[in-house]
Every structure is written in C-alpha cells, then in structure tokens.
Amino acid sequence: EADIYQTPRYLVIGTGKKITLECSQTMGHDKMYWYQQDPGMELHLIHYSYGVNSTEKGDLSSESTVSRIRTEHFPLTLESARPSHTSQYLCASSGWGEHYGYTFGSGTRLTVV
Amino acid sequence: ILNVEQSPQSLHVQEGDSTNFTCSFPSSNFYALHWYRWETAKSPKALFVMTLNGDEKKKGRISATLNTKEGYSYLYIKGSQPEDSATYLCAFPLPTGANNLFFGTGTRLTVIP
Question: Where are the beta strands (DSSP E) in A1-113?
C-alpha cells in the first residue's frame, strides 16, 4: 500500500563510491524531504523541496545533494561515500501547511565500509 | 534546533495495561504537533496532527491531547496489545516554516504478551 518508494532498502558499499538513493511518490505531493537518522538519535532534516526545480538544505549539514526534476522523484546522491555517511536515510512527502502529516518511505539503511 | 523532548525513552508494559507518554515542545509560535508510530522494519506512519489548544484526537485505542499554553502533548494507549509495540515520535514544525518537522527521539514501547 506504500505510496512512497525508496530503493535500495539496504546498501553496503565501499569508501569512495558514488551512490544514489532513490525516492518516488505517487501522491502528487509538492513537498518532499530527506531525513537522516543515526542509531539512537533523532531524525534530522537534511534536504527538502517545495516542488520541481526547488531544493533546500535542512537543519543538519550533509555532504549529500538532491535534485527534483520531476514532481514524483527526489533522489539523494553521495559523490564519494565515507564511513561517516553510514546511517538510515528516510524520504517523505506531504501537502502544504503545518496540518499535513508526512507519508514516509521505508528507508535506506546505508553502510559504508 | 528546537527543544522537543519525549519521555520516557522506553517503556515495557504487559498486554492489557493502559499507558501514556509525553511530548514537550516550545509553547511560543505554535503551529502544529504531529504524532507518528514507527514499527520496526516499517515506515513511520502519521497518527495525529494537532493544531488547537485543548484538542483531543482518537484513533481506536490510541488518543492524544494537546496543551499549547504549557507546551505538552500526551499520547494514551488503552489496553495495550503486542501489535502496539513501536517507537512513538512527536514532531514540531521548524521555524523555517513550510511544514519542515523537527522530531523528538521517541518513546520505544514494548508490549509483553
């Protein structure tokens, strides 16, 4: 029943590799978000988008980049993965306004060795 | 960074017991307060979005109350069941606006059969 899809679910990759985490939603939401969660810590916003061609940095600094060429697609890229990037990455989308709840993807658990 | 605190951090209850936990948040510039349930290996799911002081929302055995003047919300689970085992997150919109949420660390609930 997922309306927002993230792939891969798990990824183990070597240091220095370029990776792209995929996120797609079928709800037509303009707002999309990437959150990062280290074990035992809060979810932190690293990127968000208001719509096509809009990308903004969140409250937690991240070396990753994002793009929003289509409404439904919001991929996250790490040009050169490092062990410090090991974390869980969650994608979400919502309608406008503070009264809209988020719809989350299942997350990508990234391990950089 | 906002100060959104959840307590307790973790909780074990027997099946059939009722339980509650707390989310405290800044009482100034209130827009909304969100509650999410995050089961292991699944995506977080929105439970409630609360916007009015004194608001009370209910979904089955789960209910939530909101006090915006003193900056807290309670989540109640009546007659806990093993399927209620999850991490319960509250979230508060960041001052940047645009429904960017700041999440607490969550309360991890385990219901023992």
Answer: 4-7, 10-13, 19-25, 31-37, 43-49, 56-57, 65-66, 76-78, 87-94, 103-104, 108-112
Q: What is the pLDDT of residue A1?
A: 54
Q: Tens digits of per-residue pLDDT, B7-43?
A: 999 999 999 999 999 999 988 878 899 999 999 989 9
pLDDT at A96 over 60: yes
Residue count of chain A, please give it: 113
| Cis before B82? omega within 30 | no
Nearest residue, CB atoms, B43 vs list A50, A100, A107? A107
Query: pLDDT by residue (tens digit) across A2-32?
Result: 599 999 999 999 999 999 999 999 999 999 9
CA dihedral A56, A61, A63, A67 (to 10 degrees): -10
Across chain A, how many H-helices and E-strands are there? 0, 11
User: Any chain B CB within 8 A of the CB of A35?
Assistant: yes
Q: Hey, what are A31's tokens?
A: 């707002």
Instruction: Tell me which residue has tokens 């070396």.
Output: A63
User: In this structure, how many other beta carbons lie within 10 angstroms of the beta carbon of residue B98?
Assistant: 15
**Which of B54, B95, B46 has its CA nearest to residue B72?**
B54
Cβ-defined contact of A100 to B49 (cutoff 8 Å): yes
Contact B107, B62 (CB under 8 A): no
| A-B contacts at Cβ under 8 angstroms | 65
